[in-house]
Design goal:
The protein is mostly beta strands. It is 0% helix and 59% strand.
Length: 120
């Protein structure tokens, strides 16, 4: 019953900005890391950014310098601030989290995704 729910997607013009959010809920004991993946039509799902509970971050080369990932551990929430958006950023963005449940199980959970479209 652990769930991740994304929000904040939408339509934006090239050069614009969006902020995605993802909130975890349910019997969560610890979140080891949270991240964002994306999948464009015809492409494989790829990692965009990840952040550990200690605050260490990693970014895909294509978004480095434009996107910023952040988290609020107390709220089991992760955000992705996306600036200088390009048409090639168009994709469904998925939230993921490596979670230890309240009963001791560890696994990766996924949200259902939120659409980001960058177009004129």
């Amino acid at each position: 019953q652990v769930q991740l729910v994304e929000s904040g997607g939408g339509l934006v013009q090239p050069g614009g900005s969006l902020k995605l959010s993802c909130a975890g809920s349910g019997p969560i004991f610890e979140i080891k890391s949270m991240g964002w993946y994306r999948q464009a039509p015809g492409n494989q799902r790829e990692l965009v950014a990840v952040i550990t509970s200690g605050g260490a971050t990693n970014y895909a080369h294509a978004v480095k310098g434009r996107f910023t990932i952040s988290s609020d551990n107390a709220k089991n929430t992760v955000h992705l601030q996306m600036n200088s958006l390009k048409p090639e950023d168009t994709a469904v963005y998925y939230c993921s989290a490596q979670i230890i449940s309240a009963v001791g199980y560890e696994r990766e959970f996924w949200g259902r995704g939120t659409q980001v479209t960058v177009s004129t």
